[in-house]
Write a structure and sequence with these properties.
The structure is a single chain. With about 180 residues, this protein is an alpha/beta fold. About 30% of the residues lie in helices and about 25% in strands. The strands form three sheets. A four-stranded mixed β-sheet has the order 4-9-8-6. Strand 1 and strand 2 (about 55-60) form a beta hairpin. Mean pLDDT is about 75; it is low at about 40-55, about 160-165 and about 175.
């Protein structure tokens, strides 16, 4: 056998071995991250109850960034924020919980290139297993995205307090079924 061909085949074998070890390591990290998230946030899919203030109803809403969201066209049926479309009231606190193994953001605007990107809200970088929050005020609809993964898109829709509460309660009931 040609010595150069032999070295090439040996090199390919080494590269495949390293790739398989890396794959096992990443799988182990994902499993550990999922276990930690299930222990730390057993009710993370449930919406916290609204709290009243003297003049406005302020609500707190949770959006999950599911495991695998950093991979475009993954098996998440293209829903990279769960839920991707959320009804909220003005002056709502929105908390994004990162259940993925990659860092993410939730930043207002259609994309990082939008002229209004980050002007309404920006959670900043959310490390794996962490969360980021923003107080959001508005009266219309605000698209948002991840600055690291431009395919990750969502929409916050402002509604009167009672309508947002009913819509989010029914969404939670259907998610738990």
């Amino acid at each position: 056998m040609n010595p150069q061909l032999s070295k090439a085949i040996f090199g390919i074998g080494i590269a495949l071995s390293v790739a398989s070890v890396a794959s096992v390591y990443v799988t182990m990290l994902v499993t550990q991250n999922q276990n930690l998230n299930s222990q730390d946030n057993p009710t993370s899919s449930q919406q916290p109850a609204p709290t009243n203030s003297s003049t406005n109803i302020n609500t707190s809403t949770t959006i999950a960034i599911p495991n695998g969201a950093a991979v475009q066209e993954s098996s998440l049926d293209k829903e990279y924020y769960k839920p991707a479309n959320m009804k909220i009231t003005s002056k709502s606190k929105v908390t994004c919980i990162n259940q993925d193994i990659a860092a993410h953001t939730a930043t207002s605007g259609q994309s990082i290139d939008s002229s209004n990107s980050g002007q309404v809200f920006d959670t900043g970088t959310i490390a794996p297993g962490s969360s980021g929050s923003a107080m959001i005020t508005g009266s219309n609809e605000i698209p948002y995205h991840c600055t690291f993964h431009p395919w990750m898109l969502g929409i916050l829709q402002f509604t009167p307090a009672a309508a947002a509460s009913v819509a989010n309660d029914s969404r939670n009931s259907s998610e738990q079924s």
